[in-house]
Amino acid sequence: MVKVAVCDDDVELGAELERALIDVFNKQNVKYEIDVLFTGEELCGQMESGAHYDLIFLDIEFAKDKINGVEAGRLIRDTYHNNIVSIVYIAWEKKYSMQLFEIRPMNFLVKPLEYGKIENTVKTYLKISGLFLREFTYKKGHDIFKAQIKDIVYLENSERKVIIHLANGKKEEFYGSLKELYNEQLKTCDFLFIHASYAVNYDYVTAVKYNQLFLTDSVKPLPISPNRRNEVRENYLAIIKRRRV
What we know:
By secondary structure, the protein is of the alpha/beta class. The protein has helices at about 10-25, 40-50, 70-80, 95-100, 115-130, 180-185, 230-245; strands at about 1-5, 30-35, 55-60, 85-90, 105-110, 135-140, 145-150, 150-160, 160-165, 170-175, 190-195, 200, 205-210, 210-215, 220-225.
């Protein structure tokens, strides 16, 4: 899930940018949420209240706001100590390069905005964040196959086989060791190894209870083995904390 903020006092431009972003994220098959805001003060107020954003499209000049885009960027970096969020500045002309240097923006887009540049910016963010073209590889006999990490809900070990449960409802089966796959590929992709038989993608988890884990759009929970309960809970909370930095 990518949390996006569009912050511009031009209502029409904000709506246009939101439509473009919806189209780009849908094409990339990436889940997203977009908040459209109209002042630097509104953006800062949201973040002070605990709102988390991964990507911010931020206008530099606001007609009536006391906090312009540059000041908002400084607050995000220096006051809120958020050095993770990617900031993309938007303005009618490029004349702020030195002012923006210390804020470390990911990109600068000149109005009127072009769809191609918006799309390239999103693709760049997805590559930087590891959400773009991150792949899981597996073998069937002598053949090697690939699946997008973002499309995997969980992996199940059944006898000597590993079953990949995909978000579209399909399944893939192959012979292998779930423990080895987790250690070699899945551990760094925010998967939770909840049981000798299950490794689950954090992005599809809705709740972790004492001995069960619940998934998006699934009535039946998955069991958490007794010897993994503390580790699963610690890893789950660690992922939440890291993603909210």
